[in-house]
Structure formats: C-alpha cells, structure tokens
Amino acid sequence: MASVEIKGIRKLYGDVVALSDINISIPSGSFFTLLGPSGCGKTTLLRTIAGFHDQNAGRIEVDGKSIEGLPAYRRDVGMVFQDYAIFPHISVRDNVAFGLRQRKVLASDISKRVADVLEVVQLGAFADRMPHELSGGQQQRVGLARAVVIRPKVLLMDEPLSNLDARLRVDLRAELRRIQRDLGITTVYVTHDQEEALAMSDTVCVMHQGVIQQAASPLDIYLRPENRFVATFVGACNFMSLSKEGGQFSLKSSGARVFDAAGFNATEIACAVRPETLRVASGHVTPSPEEIAIPAKILDVSFIGREMEVLTITDGGEQLKSLARPDPAIIELANGSSVTVLVKRDDLAFFEATEVGRRVG
Ligand SMILES: Nc1ncnc2c1ncn2[C@@H]1O[C@H](COP(=O)(O)OP(=O)(O)OP(=O)(O)O)[C@@H](O)[C@H]1O
Ligand SMILES: [Mg+2]
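Above are the sequence and the adenosine-5'-triphosphate SMILES. Below is the predicted complex in structure-token form.
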C-alpha cells in the first residue's frame, strides 16, 4: 500500500502535448480511474508512472518519495495490459512465478506465493493449464495474478477488460474490485467506459486532450460535473437554448426564467438537463411550483424493457430525450401527439457554451 502523488507532469511527443500539467493525489489503497476519450493521454500517464518513458516536466512520488530516475523494474509497480501479455508457451503457474524468479525469490517461497495468489483470482485448479486452454476472462486473471504476485506498491491497469465480451466485463469488474480490496493495493485503472469507471472507482478522473477536467467521486462526477465536457462525456445531456432579457435568462421553449447572470450573452450559456430527470405527461399539464412545463410533441417512443426512451420535439424545434419507467399512457401515444415535458428547476445545469465551458450558477 502506498500513496501516489503526481506533480506537474508534462509529456510531449514531438510537438504533440500528450499530458499538460497533470496534478493528482491518490490516497493509499484507493481505486483511482482515468476516464476519457481515445487519445486523451490515459496510457501516456500510466506509462509515465510505470517508468516506461521520461516526462518532460514534473515528478511522481510514491509514499512521499520521488521515484525519479528509478527504472521501471525498480519502481514496485505491477502492470496489467489490455492484451494480457502472458507468455503463451508456459503454464499458468510458470507465468505467475515469472516475476518472482526474476527477483530471485527462494523457490520454496515462490510455490507458496503463486498458490496463494491463484486462490485469490480463483484459478487454483488451473495452475497446470496452458494459456490457450483458458477463456479470455481466465487469461485476464492470470495477467492480474502475475502483476500482483510481486506485491507491488501500486497496481496499474490499462483497459484490462476491453477485449472481453460485455457479460464477462461486468462479471470481472466486480471481481477485480474484490481482489483490489482484499489486497488493499493502490490502483490506477484506465478505461474509456464510463459505466465501468463509475461502478468500480473511489475516484474518477476525467481527462480530455491531456488535461484533467475533474477528479471526484463517481457520484460527484455524475451529479455535479464541473464543466460541460464532463457533463456530456459521463452520462447523457439534453441542451436547451436560452434567451436573455434584462440580465435574466429564460428557456426559449417555455419562457420560464431560469438563470440570472448579467455578465453573459444568451449564446454564451449552455443549459443542460439529464434525460432521466425529465418527465413526459400526455396533453397540457400545469407544472408544480418547482417545475417548468415545456409544450412538445412526441417524435418517437421506444420501450426497452426496464425503461422507455421518449424523444420529443418542443414547439420551438428542440429535441429532448427523456428516460423513465415504462408508462403505458405514454408508450401508446401516436407520434405527433401533444405532450408536456416537465423539468425541475434544480435539475438544470448551466455551463459556458464552449466544449469545456466551466459550470456557472
Ligand atoms: N509514441 C508516440 N509518439 C507520438 N505520439 C504519441 C505516441 N504515443 C501516444 N501519442 C499521442 O499522444 C496522445 C495521447 O495518447 P495515449 O495513448 O496516451 O491516449 P489514450 O488516452 O490512452 O487513448 P486510447 O483510449 O485510444 O488508448 C495521442 O494524441 C497520441 O496520438
Ligand atoms: Mg490507451
């Protein structure tokens, strides 16, 4: 167990800025996830922590001590890759023992430690199998066993589940988290799957173009995104246009006053609302005091089992998507039917209208 401090890390490839002034503090024993779109710098940051390349500026401390200049094999870091990177021609047992032999651990200790870690990843009965005799999920667990058997202070995982089918990903997600908790090992996990990040992490760190956008608990990331990029990358958002009169912003689609900000123009503010917070009711409905009523028409309703997805178009021509428990009264409405979309004022979020515009109000 160890804390990890990443201080002012900058990494260039030629003139591409892969990481720009990254500052992160990872508490000992926690599960920390880097989440972001392809090319945002996740792998580059993991490789920097692992010591596979040098940064252009900044430093990394493990338990308060700089690891500057330490080569990868002396950093006490275990790494699990997307493509497992297990040796195909040797048994599960020998794969797991590899790092211990390299470190000249006593043979009698090796067999005990390998057996113990294979129990943890529930592969005790598979020690003598060859990698090609295992399923994808089992191979991934061999990769994990290999990384943790050396008892690293820090475990780094780069999209370890991305080669697996959807069902197995979900099963292994829970299992990875259990193993991480049992071992209490500080973990930096990389994914571009938002659901995986929210489900597994103590802290989710959203990255975009080499810059950290927000690092917070899964709940805070979802409920209180600090900027527009985070709001749209994690979960879905509807955006509604605003008009401005005398420093007051109103929803174009309903006329309701929603926001007070003298310093901005209407086009400079984006108003966002999550689909699951919208309520669609048939016909004309009077809103409660905390709600805003938006007149709209049904564009499409899809009943997807547990939920229904209702796409509406406001009279002003804006599409709004809502997600709710199935309601036969709505599902049976014909396309083009008049409905009211009800929005709670508290569920509206306002951002500067640029791609990474900060939250305002
Ligand atoms: N060896 C390299 N040489 C030049 N540019 C590189 C190199 N490796 C990565 N890059 C660039 O640095 C940026 C960050 O790449 P990185 O691999 O860290 O992204 P990532 O977030 O891991 O993406 P993905 O989700 O696709 O794996 C990208 O613009 C990429 O093209
Ligand atoms: Mg990557």
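The longest strand covers residues 291-303.
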